[in-house]
C-alpha cells in the first residue's frame, strides 16, 4: 500500500437557504454530506455521479476554494482546513485545479504568457526572462507552440484553451491536481487527446489526480480507483476493475447499465430508475437512494447505511450488501 497523499474525513459543505423579510436561514442545501476517502500518491481517483450530486463542490472544498461546513482534509498529514492564509498560499503550489469550462476560466484581457506566468511570479518561483522560459516550456509540454505566449484566449480553440489551463495548473509543479470535468465541454475527437496528455503529464511529473467526470467510459480509461457519489454522499469506492466487473450498490449498477455498448450484437440490460433525484435541501430519511431503489426495504427508509468494507478495498453504503 502506498502512502495516501490526500485524506478526507467526514467532509461537509452546506449552502444556506435564506427566506423572509430579514433573509434568515430557513434551511440548508447539503451539497456534500459526510464524505470520506483517501487518494494514494501517483494514482488517479475517478469521482463519478449524475449532475448535481456534489462532485464539483467536493473538489473545490478539498482545495478550500469553498469554505467547508465540517470535516477535515489532510495533505501529507497536514490539515488544509486548519491552515492560515499564508500557509494556504504556500500550499497552493502543491494543490492545483483544472477547471471545467476553458472559455470562462481564462482571463480574456491577459495573453497566454501573462495567464500562465502570473502564478509563477506571485509565488516567487521566477521572473523576467526565467519566467518567460518557464511559460514557453509549459506550453510546449502541453502540446502548444512556445510562440503562442503572446496570443489571447479568443485566438484558440476549446481544446487549445484547455491545454493552456493545464499548463497554468502545472506551472507551479504541484503534486495533487483536481481535474473538474476537464473534457466535458470539448468535442469527442479532442477529449481523447486531452486525456492522453494528462496521462503523459502524470507520468512525467509524478502527479496525483482527482478526476471528476460523468463519463464512465473515460473514467474507466484513466482512473485507478473510482468513487461513486449520489446526492452529496459517496455510496461506493473501489478499484476500477472491481467496480466495472462487480458493482454492488444499486445506483452504481444503474449508472453502468447506461454506458453505451459499442457492439450492436450485445444487448445491455438497462436499469431504468423511477422518480426524480430528491432535493439536497430536503434529502429523504434513511438511505438517500431509497425513493428510487428497486430493492428498498423498510429499514432503508429509516436507517442510513454506513460506508463499510465488504471485500478487500471495496466499500459500499447499502443495507442490501450488508446481508450478503
Mean residue pLDDT: 91
The counted number of beta strands is 12
Number of helices: 10
Choose one word for the global shape: globular
Main β sheet profile? 8 strands, mixed
Give unreliable regions as ranges: none
Structural class, from helix and strand content?
alpha/beta
Order of helices and strands: EEEHEEHEHHHEHEHEEHHEEH
Strand order of the largest sheet: 6-7-8-3-9-10-12-11
Radius of gyration: 21 Å
**End-to-end separation:** 27 Å
Percentage of residues in DSSP E strands: 15-25%
Task: Describe the model.
By secondary structure, this protein is α/β, with parallel strands linked by helices. The protein is 30% helix and 25% strand. The protein contains 10 helices and 12 strands. The chain has helices at 55-62, 85-91, 112-122, 128-141, 158-170, 188-205, 216-222, 240-245, 250-257, 319-322; strands at 4-19, 24-40, 44-48, 70-75, 78-79, 95-98, 176-180, 208-212, 225-230, 233-239, 308-311, 314-316. An 8-stranded mixed β-sheet has the order 6-7-8-3-9-10-12-11, with helices on both faces. A hairpin with a 2-residue loop joins strand 9 and strand 10 (233-239). Helix 3 crosses helix 4, helix 3 runs parallel beside helix 5 and helix 4 crosses helix 5 (158-170). The longest helix is centred in the middle third of the chain and has 18 residues, at 188-205. The mean pLDDT is 91.
